[in-house]
Backbone:
């Protein structure tokens, strides 16, 4: 299934670009985890993943303080 076809995404995330980005990042994380698990299952290995969340950088700081305005170069 496509992420854009999920009812929750259509109703909520598509109205808020920040939330949509968060969901897309999480789905990418899960897909990478699933792909790694598939390739390692022959060795009976488990895959643990860590998602650090937001990393505070000057760009992230500017976005936090943008009050919904897009950051432009």
Residues:
């Amino acid at each position: 299934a496509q992420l854009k076809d999920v009812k929750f995404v259509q109703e909520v995330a598509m109205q808020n670009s920040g939330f949509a980005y968060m969901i897309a990042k999480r789905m990418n994380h899960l897909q990478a985890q699933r792909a790694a698990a598939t390739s390692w299952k022959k060795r009976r290995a488990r895959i643990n993943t860590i998602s650090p969340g937001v990393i505070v950088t000057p760009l992230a700081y500017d976005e936090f303080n943008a009050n919904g305005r897009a950051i432009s170069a």
Q: What stands out?
A: The two ends are 35 Å apart (CA to CA). The mean pLDDT is 77. The helical segments are 7-11, 17-40, 58-64. DSSP finds three helices and no strands in the chain.
